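Why this split exists: single-chain examples teach little about how molecules sit against one another. For that reason, every record in the complexes split bundles all components of an assembly together and asks for one structure covering all of them. Below is a record exactly as it appears in the raw files.
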Amino acid sequence: MGNFDFGVGLAFWLMNASAVLCIVYGVLYWNKDKQEKAIDMTTWNKDEDKINEEL
Amino acid sequence: VTFFENSIIILYLASLGYLGFLGYKQTKNSADYLLAGRDTHPFIMAMSYGATFISTAAIVGFGGVAAWLGNAILWLTFANIFIGIFIAFAVFGNPTRKMGLRLNAHTFPEFLGKRYQSKFIQMSGGVLILFFMPLYTSAVLIGGTQFVATYFGVDYHIALLVFSTIITGYVLAGGLKGVMFTDALQGVIMFVAMAMLLVMTIYSLGGMESAFSKFAVVWEHTVAPLANTPMKELKPGSADFLMKLSMNWGFQGWDKMPQFLSEGWLFIVTTITMGVGLGVLAQPQLVVRFMTVKSKNELNRGVLIGGIFIFVVMGSAYLVGALSNVWYYEFNEGKNALQSAGGIEKVIPHFINSALPKWFSFIFLFALISAAMSTLSSQFHTMGTAFGRDFFEQLSSKQFNSLHVTRFGVIVMIIISVGLAYQFDNQPAVIARSTAVFFALCASIFLPAYVGGLFWKRMTKKGVIASMFVGAFVSTFWLLFVHFQEAKVLGLCKILFGTNSLLSGKIIFVDSLVIALPLSALTAVVVSLLTKPDDQAHVNKCFND
């Protein structure tokens, strides 16, 4: 890339590589985690309801 | 302002109003107001994170720094993408979300407070935000308002009032939902404008290869001749003075890294790349975004969206900043960017007005306004939650409705921030340095507690408190009495000791984070190992469903 020296050239290519990494990671894990949706929000919702009731 | 421009402005404001109203309609309880109901769409979450991350100062300020110091600043873009997005989302995101849910935490200080069962930790976090974030906020407010005032030719104070009133409206009504909806719209505007800016700049310079190959020629003709000119012959603050200063710091060209371990190298690596790039991991207004989604999938998708967003927006700002030197050299009588624009902060606005068509200036104005508003709205919200949830509610023996208290906190903190923006509009350096203080304190105080809280069960409350004290003390000392930028501008060292810094040599270019963070982290580990482990049942609750 132009006349970039090693330090700047490395930053340039690492910047591009990290963007590609984000894209690849996002695509690979787009829908990988279905079981996570099972996390129970009821306790949290109950706490919220309790506070609101008290108020 | 033409009829067409007026129409676009009205459409923009109407869109913000509608999105704020949408947030208001969907806000039914404090969880909605503080955490956007924990079911935010990944696109909105990632765009909101990115738009909050990038303020006007990041585009105009760091774009100007790129014009001054060159492409070495691309290390920051790399850090922003790799650390600020990939590590933040893929490593920290899901553990934060899950632990936040288990502990019923609504804010970042509350998250830390509940993880370590300490009101002190929560309130300290709140106080740090309440003291320093208004300065950071006023810096963003001053920057955004100055653009609006200059472009529309209106009085700064009137512009400030109108600007802050608009943001207040949708933050107050819509809470985090309103903030994130508007952030997403503003993020799209920023993305489109910055992508266009990069493409148009490279096109005007005859393509990428041609544009990037000319840095050496421009440096040779506009900066290298200064090599034999003594600094005292140059007017302080002038373009040539700044370029000569960069040479003295070890910079050798816009396409080269400064000499290894020179002042410039330390500045780029420790202050710009690590100070800003690493510091972002412990920013309260960003961390809270991880708690707004319902599953890890949203965070995974956010990596893709946020990565592309930061790559385009920050990459464009820095590349265009550096490339403006080539453009000015070719089209402005052989001058470089600083010689043409007259100052670091003036480069990007001057370049937009000189090099690009008038219609694009209008689009770019929206990008800058959007960058400022998206950061400001999140800051207002975070300060409001710190005031209400982390400070007021913790101090009070009575229980209050979080929603009302937070709304009250938002109003108080907006008034303080706007007051500071009124007071300090002629002293941007003090405000800008105070922003650096906030970043440094966040990293050295919060980061060990946050990382340990997420990944190390043995981390104790006492370890965290000790680490917070060490981080606060070392950071404050380094910023007030050593670091070449803050110590000089804040002036306490000069008043007490008659000198700008207690140390001399290259060490004063080392960022406080590099000194304070390792010490604070080490303290956390040592004190945790030397103290009794925290209640095992609570630790299990933090880590297990």
